Amino acid sequence: MNTPRARAMLFMGRRSHQSHAPHKHSPPAVANDLVISTVDENSGIAMLTMNRPPANSLSLEMNEALCYSLKTVEANPKIQSVILSSTNPKIFSAGLDITELVAPDNDRLPRFWNSLQQVYIDLYGSRLATVAAIQGHAPAAGCFLAMSCDYRVMSEGDTNNDIKKKHVPTIGLNETQLGIAAPPWMGQLLVRTIGFRQAELALALGTLFPPEQALSIGLVDDIVPHQQVESGDHKLVDLLPSQIKDQAQNSLLQKAYTQAQIYAKIPPQARVASKMVTREEHIFRMIAKRDEDTQHFCGFVTQKAVQKNLTAYVEALKNKSAKK
Ligand SMILES: CC/C=C\C/C=C\C/C=C\C/C=C/C(=O)SCCNC(=O)CCNC(=O)[C@H](O)C(C)(C)COP(=O)(O)OP(=O)(O)OC[C@H]1O[C@@H](n2cnc3c(N)ncnc32)[C@H](O)[C@@H]1OP(=O)(O)O
């Protein structure tokens, strides 16, 4: 697997293991509206907008839709950059769909975990330049999605004096707060992003960082004030479906688009080769341990004590939501 050819194929948008179809790790060809895809061949920029109400949490189907949409965009040679965003103005992604973890089905649970592993392989190893536009909360696997991109722009949120309107998004791997631990490859992504000591602290405490702190430790690359701009000065916004067009007219997407343009102007072969330098070893190490990782995950999640914590957590989430 870890040959020069396999490595090159990984980063050119083709997976070496997909030549041996059917393979248990290959995402099925699904097409649905869980991820809205907008493509602008003139600029070479596409946008994938996560659209799984209420919280863009990652179910098996959502993971498959993410991989499918990304692969479809990657197959278009005119596209060089992709922006990952959300239809929900307050939530980028709430992480794993916790209901997948509670009283899980024995057959579905490993398929669910495989689909998440595939998101990591496809997104972190994409030939495209990937920019996360983080408009709202990004806990746990939501943070993982953002960290799998090449660049992260986060909204400062609405710091309106009116407490009811106030909204400050947070980002981080908060798994320990749920009584679970991020898998090694996800935890290592945090180490790679913010450095060893900061990651060690953040992982143990399950810290969720508000935008300014996230910027100061390097978890995001840029933050932008929450504001509407008069009109989009780029073609991509014009192409967006009406359901997200309004919220696209904001400073966050403008910034993400500018960054996507910067990437799109770099000679692609050189950009992809430089990405391989920093990422291929990490990806291949994970692929080598993929089945072991799945077994570990299934064994861990189905433990009685873990199930108890997760059940209580889901209950608390539902109660909180019901009180609104
Ligand atoms: C060695 C390792 C081995 C094994 C590893 C074991 C496990 C795997 C470990 C790590 C991988 C990653 C794990 C995860 O991602 S776990 C998920 C973590 N996510 C969270 O903790 C976030 C939970 N959600 C929230 O805190 C809030 O919802 C949020 C701040 C995102 C938004 O708050 P807001 O007030 O705007 O909305 P809510 O009213 O709370 O929610 C609206 C609605 O959405 C539902 N919801 C929210 N989050 C989730 C979720 N993650 N999964 C499923 N459903 C979710 C919530 O229940 C509400 O629904 P409803 O009641 O129907 O209105």
Automatic annotation (TrEMBL):
Q: Where in the cell is it found?
A: Mitochondrion matrix
Q: Which UniProt keywords apply?
A: Acetylation, Fatty acid metabolism, Isomerase, Lipid metabolism, Mitochondrion, Transit peptide
What InterPro entries does the entry give?
ClpP/crotonase-like_dom_sf, Enoyl-CoA_hyd/isom_CS, Enoyl-CoA_hydra/iso
Instruction: Give the record's GO CC terms.
Output: mitochondrial matrix
- UniProt xrefs under CDD domains: crotonase-like
Catalysed reaction, written as an equation = (3Z)-decenoyl-CoA = (2E)-decenoyl-CoA; (3Z)-octenoyl-CoA = (2E)-octenoyl-CoA; (2E)-tetradecenoyl-CoA = (3Z)-tetradecenoyl-CoA; (3Z)-dodecenoyl-CoA = (2E)-dodecenoyl-CoA
Q: What is its main location?
A: mitochondrion
What is a biological process (GO) this protein takes part in?
Answer: fatty acid metabolic process
GO molecular-function terms, A-Z: delta(3)-delta(2)-enoyl-CoA isomerase activity
PROSITE patterns named among the record's database cross-references: ENOYL_COA_HYDRATASE
List the pathway annotation: Lipid metabolism; fatty acid beta-oxidation
Q: Which PANTHER family match?
A: ENOYL-COA DELTA ISOMERASE 1, MITOCHONDRIAL, ENOYL-COA HYDRATASE-RELATED
Task: State the oligomer form and interacting partners.
Answer: Homotrimer.
Q: What does this protein do?
A: Key enzyme of fatty acid beta-oxidation. Able to isomerize both 3-cis (3Z) and 3-trans (3E) double bonds into the 2-trans (2E) form in a range of enoyl-CoA species, with a preference for (3Z)-enoyl-CoAs over (3E)-enoyl-CoAs. The catalytic efficiency of this enzyme is not affected by the fatty acyl chain length.
Tell me the protein family, please.
Answer: Belongs to the enoyl-CoA hydratase/isomerase family.
Instruction: Output this protein's name.
Output: Enoyl-CoA delta isomerase 1, mitochondrial
What organism does this protein naturally occur in? Cyclostephanos tholiformis
Q: What is the lineage of its organism?
A: Eukaryota, Sar, Stramenopiles, Ochrophyta, Bacillariophyta
